[in-house]
Amino acid sequence: MVFQRIHLCTGLLERAGRILLVANTYPNHAERLWGLPGGRQEDRETCAMAVVREFREEVALEARVTGLAYVAESFDEAAQTQYTAFCFTVEADGEAQVVPGDAHVRDCRWVPRDELASLLAVRVIREPLLGYLADPAQRYFGYLDAGITIAFGDEQA
């Protein structure tokens, strides 16, 4: 079985002990799924470039990548997809706001570190972020089962 590979590129922006999260909707999930701002890497784009673009598109911020926080990979057997998530530390000035017309983002908020676990429902998002925040020396996380399938809504048939 050949899995398609998708690079997810997210940014960790923290201010005064609060992390910027976005709430996403997808065609195959009734509830909003919270995570870091970011998304899929596009053709001829580095992962760092993708994070900067995604911050602009999702929360109207001009992000500056300051480093690689961690990498997390997971497999979705149902969708025959291997996801590799590159999480970068970023800086950005200004106030985050949801950009009208975004395909997935419906809300954004600054969440205190101690409230992240209760808001992040998806294990392959929650565990790497919390693991890295608890110990920045943890920079790799791997999951043979993603435990979730995401239909982005723009898949090619």
Topology:
Layout: E1 4-12, E2 14-15, E3 18-26, E4 29-35, E5 38-40, H1 47-59, E6 64-76, E7 81-91, E8 105-112, H2 116-119, H3 123-134, E9 140-143
Task: Based on the model shown, name its key terms.
alpha+beta; 18% helix; five-stranded mixed sheet; four-stranded antiparallel sheet; 157 residues; single chain; Nucleoside Triphosphate Pyrophosphohydrolase; globular; 9 strands
Describe this structure in words.
- With 157 residues, the protein is an alpha+beta fold.
- The chain has one domain: Nucleoside Triphosphate Pyrophosphohydrolase (Alpha-Beta Complex), CATH 3.90.79.
- 18% of the residues lie in helices and 42% in strands.
- It has three helices and nine strands; from the N terminus they run βββββαβββααβ.
- The protein has helices spanning 47-59, 116-119, 123-134; strands at 4-12, 14-15, 18-26, 29-35, 38-40, 64-76, 81-91, 105-112, 140-143.
- Strands 5-1-7-6-9 form a five-stranded mixed sheet, with helices on both faces. Strands 2, 3, 4 and 8 form a four-stranded antiparallel sheet that branches.
The overall pLDDT, averaged over residues, is 93
**What is the CATH H-level superfamily?**
Nucleoside Triphosphate Pyrophosphohydrolase
- Between the first and last Cα atoms, what is the distance in angstroms? 18 Å
Query: In percent, how helical is the residue content?
Result: 10-25%
Quickly count the helices.
3
Within the CATH hierarchy, at the fold level, what is the topology? Answer: Nucleoside Triphosphate Pyrophosphohydrolase
The neighbouring-strand order within the major sheet is 5-1-7-6-9
SSE order, as H and E? EEEEEHEEEHHE
Structural class: alpha+beta
Kindly provide the radius of gyration, computed on alpha-carbon positions and rounded to a whole number of angstroms: 15 Å
* DSSP strand tally: 9
The structural domain count equals 1
**Beta-strand percent range:** 35-45%
Low-confidence parts lasting 5 or more residues at pLDDT below 50? Answer: none
**Main sheet summary:** 5 strands, mixed
